[in-house]
Design brief:
1% strand, mainly alpha, transport, MCP_transmembrane
Length: 367
């Protein structure tokens, strides 16, 4: 059967091609030539194998893409996001206070010393409950939906285009997942910021949530969802795309042996390293919106545009060092815990993507 595939510059609009080339993570654009490809027989049931319907591999507890697989991925997201964010509440508290009151909290060290002086050691744990609940729900949606959307978009693209446009697939799947994850996170994030940045307003979630509802209604919990999307969607797109491509590059250029020959422990070390690298970029990309969210949830009646104007170009970058430390560590731990959950439950863990044989033949890379 003959495959006639024009050059991608002809297939796609010029603007789209230029944008794809500008993407720092883009896959190379190939010129595919007309070749003869032998017919391949289909499986006995007449259906070709795809990502969502792979057979259970030896040693795995379920099929890749099955309902059990997606639910356990969501459970892994709960553990990885909920526990790590809760563990870093003291640093997050200081970071938020630096953003909303930079004149008082001039540095990380000053922020910790003032908090200990005014509230004692217990003051550093303010907001732990909404943090744990909110980010557990976010993790459920973030990781569970990411795996689901990655499979869904891959099936739409087909095997060859999935490989060629894999970075764009990671970006689209993570953005789609984070859209829903932030809706789940928004109410607890609003409570957390109000507890941490408004002294005397409320000491815990039981006091804060009813008080906010009485004063502003349901809107109090969702007024920050748009800035949250502005912060979290770019962050998550970078988190997943950068992680996936970094893992691919580490196994290709740094790890001295193929992934299949690495032990589970060695694979998890690669996961942690790639996670930290991704986390640094995540912090930088999402920090301005994070500053807006912190101030917006502190000041009732303000809008995102008003807060952005008030902070100015320099103000939105306050607390960046603290956020890089926090997010770098956080992202590395999240990926490590998430991958460890997959190992524990014996979930399928596909290796980094390789060029399909059919594409190699079209490109003349095989004899």
């Amino acid at each position: 059967m003959k495959y006639l595939t024009p050059v991608l510059d002809i297939m796609y609009p010029t603007t789209l091609t230029q944008l794809s080339r500008a993407n720092p993570f883009n896959a190379p654009l190939f010129s595919l030539q007309e070749i003869e490809e032998p017919k391949q027989s289909l499986p006995a049931n007449g259906q070709s194998r795809n990502l969502a319907a792979a057979a259970i591999a030896e040693g795995d507890s379920c099929e890749f893409g099955s309902r059990k697989y997606l639910l356990l991925c969501g459970f892994g997201g709960i553990i990885s996001c909920g526990t790590t964010h809760a563990a870093l509440v003291p640093l997050d508290l200081v970071k938020c206070r630096m953003q909303v009151d930079p004149d008082k909290y001039k540095s990380i060290g000053k922020g910790f010393s003032l908090t200990l002086k005014e509230d004692g050691a217990r003051g550093l744990a303010k907001g732990w409950a909404p943090t744990f609940i909110g980010y557990s729900m976010q993790g459920l949606c973030k990781f569970g939906f990411y795996e689901m959307f990655k499979i869904f978009y891959s099936d739409m693209l087909g095997e060859e285009n999935t490989y060629l446009w894999r970075t764009s697939l990671y970006l689209a799947a993570s953005a789609s997942a984070e859209f829903f994850a932030d809706i789940a996170l928004a109410p607890m994030e609003a409570c957390k910021v109000r507890i941490q940045t408004c002294p005397g307003y409320a000491n815990n979630l039981r006091q804060c949530a009813p008080k906010m509802f009485a004063e502003e209604g349901v809107w109090a919990f969702y007024k920050g969802v748009v800035p949250l999307w502005m912060r979290q969607i770019p962050y998550t797109m970078m988190k997943f795309a950068c992680f996936e491509r970094t893992v691919e590059l580490l196994y290709k250029h740094v790890v001295p042996k193929p992934r299949a020959e690495c032990t589970k422990g060695e694979q998890l070390i690669v996961t942690f390293t790639a996670g930290y690298i991704a986390g640094v970029f995540c912090a930088i990309v999402s920090h301005p919106a994070d500053s807006v969210v912190s101030v917006l949830n502190k000041e009732s009646g303000s809008t995102a545009a008003q807060v952005l104007k008030k902070l100015g170009p320099k103000g939105v970058w306050k607390g960046l060092v603290a956020r890089i430390i926090m997010i770098g560590t956080l992202t590395a731990l999240q990926w490590f815990i998430y991958d460890s959950v997959k190992v524990y439950f014996r979930l399928p863990r596909p290796p980094p993507p390789e060029m399909p044989e059919s594409l190699k033949k079209k490109l003349g890379l095989t004899e």
